[in-house]
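job 3f2a | input accepted
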Amino acid sequence: MVFAEHAATQTRHEDSLRNGDAVFLGIFQVFSLIPGVSRSGATISGGLLRDIDRVTATRMSFLLGIPALAAAGGLEAISESHQNLRTRVGWSATMVGVIVSFVVGYISIAWLLRFVAHHSIVWFVPYRVALGIVIIVALVAGGTSLSS
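job 3f2a | predicted structure (148 res):
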């Protein structure tokens, strides 16, 4: 993220996007399969490396995430619908959760777009490193478990 921010010229905007840009950002999205790599951070960095401005790269990052996130959510809903959803949580609680998640997600993305319009994405690097250290310390100390 730091390299991409400093290397970027941010000379390209939405009207100059091409299909090749979407493919390039899609390839960068694959880097998020590496544990600890942020999907949005990777794709925003990829956009910056293509000289796309920060706001457009951020918008593209979230648009590219829709198919993957929708497919993952749909698969989870199907796999859980027969057992846990009916007996443990219920459909009404699940729908409330989906609606609240959508609203909070929309507000968060709107805030992020306003933030990156005026600030560097480098601000997120110390946050990610600090959060990673906290998680590692908690795991080593036995404070949490990643297994279900």
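job 3f2a | The chain has one domain: 2-141.
job 3f2a | closed
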